[in-house]
Amino acid sequence: MNVAFLIPPETHSIESSLPKGLENGKGVYPKLGLLYVAGFLEQELGVVPAVIDCPAERLDYPGLEHRLRQAAPDVLGISTLTFNLIDCWKTVRLAKRVLPNTKIVIGGQHVTLYPEETLGLEGVDMVVHGEGERVFVRLIEALQAGGSPELLEVIPGLGFIRPNGEHFIHPHQDKVDDLDSLANPARHLIDLSRYDHIAAEGEKLATMQTSRGCPAKCLFCDIRMTKFRKRSPENVMAELRYLVEERGVDDIFFVDDTITIDRNRLFEICEMIKTSGLKIHFKVSARVDTVKPAILKALREAGCYRIHYGVESATPRLLKYLQKQVTPEKVTQAFRWTRDAGIGSFAYCMIGIPTETRQEMMNTVDFAISLDPDYAQFSICTPYPRTALYESMLQMGHISADYWREFARNPSEDFRIRFWNKLYTEDELRELQSEAHRRFYSRPRYIARQARRVRSWSDLKSKAEVGAKILLRQLNR
Hints:
- With 477 residues, the chain is an alpha/beta fold.
- The protein is built from 20 helices and 17 strands.
- A hairpin with a 5-residue loop joins strand 7 (158-161) and strand 8 (167-169).
- It is globular, with a radius of gyration of 23 Å.
């Protein structure tokens, strides 16, 4: 059976909570979720799929049509987030027109949130909600055996349309507890040289995931309080060796939601990296309340050059509202410990939190400057789909209709996300956001420090382009 996986072009991402200058200039990461499914399919069934990554390959829709005609898959798996749903649906309809007999299967975080709504979109044959590795393998097995409804309806996490037009969604999602049982992401199916990121510091970048889930309670996050599952240190090292020794990777971004939850395991991984002789450096994401000087020292000695932290706000009452379970003092301590360990930092901050005043927003900017991270990002607090923040606003009547669900049912190009600080309009919040980024990034001390770190002329050019976009946004307001 001929199988292909596809990431749609990026021509109409709905307006995000970030400035377009930052959102559009960051670069492209490999899509690990899709590559994990592809790798597991090859491991379990020997089916080697094609991977079409339109953003990385810079494919527009005419180029994609040509690629689809060449690949002519029997099954086409498409990964989608809510933010690229419009492009995903456009891709589905293109694929159905070009390949009317191809089974189109949609997966990804958006489908996990809205399986029934996704299955109802024109051209979609099947959906996978939850983790897709085992579900997709069972789906291909069922299709190879004839694809009868009786074979399909017993697969957890699968939705499909019965011959009579009835929609069937298996109510249970699949979650893999033994992550070591999964194959490595199928990176041999992509060209890693096509991927890069503005904040990367090596010559060849790859992403890795050593754990899944996060037990934290952050109000704005759609994976809050999910079960933490982890790979063994030995399993992690095997993938690292492959990336470094066989693919020439020298820069890794561990995309775990919070890799520092199990510090004992992380100590083991750091020690193995140190003794392996691998020439690698990497960055991670962590909560400020999960780091201590000892683990930071171990991370630095293993090659960690940056840690991404969720700071959010400088105001204690707003941190409590967001259920961050941290204080500004803990944030300051973690950044000081990180700097003392010789590791850089990235501060994720938030403005426009419900009831937050302008002064409190600017206090957060000042706080971020005092932390002295390498980078800071100021997003606007947004009730994203199916988060506790969004659900609470629905329950309290602050939102009259479930507009994210309506968008999932009918992806309209004029849809705009909504912010919910009643003290300010969207334009005012965007202006405050631009001011926050300008204040942080236009400081002479910051500019001088970044200039000393430029790796090459192309690196300088890409960073200058992002900076110019942010400043132009200021001038055009």
